[in-house]
C-alpha cells in the first residue's frame, strides 16, 4: 500500500513537471480518479521521451513495447513505479488496451515520418499521439458512457494535438519535422524555404488559421457532449479543452510568433478560464 502511494506520487511529479495545463485541469477530480490520470500520463510521457530524447529510440521503443506486453500478462516489467501505479489502474477500471498500443504506434511514426501531406494525414497522426490519451482516460472519467463519448474524445485529442502543432512549429523544425500539411502550404503559395526562414506573412497566417479553425471545430464537437460525463469529470475535461484552446488565442495576440518562442497561457489566465467555466 505504501509502495503504491509512492508510485502514484512519482506519477504526479511527472505530470506536474511536464504539463502544468493538464495538472491544473485534472486536479479537480476525486483523489482515486486523479491518481489514475497521473499514472496514464506517466505511461504516455515515457513513450514520448523515448522518441524525443532516447539515445537509441527504435531499440528503446521496441523494448518498451515488450515491457507493455509483459505488463498485460500480469507481470511488473521493471522497478519503475509507473508500472505499479498503472497495474492498480487496470485493476480498478475496464481500460481500453488498444489505445495504449495505438499510442506507441503514434510515437513510432515520429521515428520514420517527418512530413505530412494532407490534413487527413495530420488527423490520423493526431489520433495516434493524442486522441489515444482521451480513450485511455474515458474508462476513468466516464465509465458508463465511454462508448457514446468515444468519437468526441477522439475529436478533443485531435484538437489538442493540432494546437500543439500550431504552437511548436519552430521547435519541430529544429527536429526536422513539419506537421503543417504540405498541400495546404503549397495551395497558399508558402514554400518550405519560407518555413525554414521563419517567415511570418499573410500566406503563413492563412495556413495557420485554416488549421486553427479545424482545431476549434473539433473543440466544439468535443464539448457538445460534455453533459454525458459524470459531474465530477465535467470540469476537468472542459477545463483541459478551454485551457488548451486558449493557447491559440495567445499565439494570435502575439502576432503568430511561433518560430522563436513557445506560447503558454499564464497562471493568471488559467485561473480566470477555470473560474469562468
TrEMBL record:
Annotated keywords: Carotenoid biosynthesis, Transferase
Pathway assigned in UniProt: Carotenoid biosynthesis
TM stretches of this protein: none
PANTHER family reported for this sequence: BIFUNCTIONAL LYCOPENE CYCLASE/PHYTOENE SYNTHASE (PTHR31480)
Annotated protein name in UniProt: Phytoene synthase
PROSITE patterns for this protein: SQUALEN_PHYTOEN_SYN_1 (PS01044), SQUALEN_PHYTOEN_SYN_2 (PS01045)
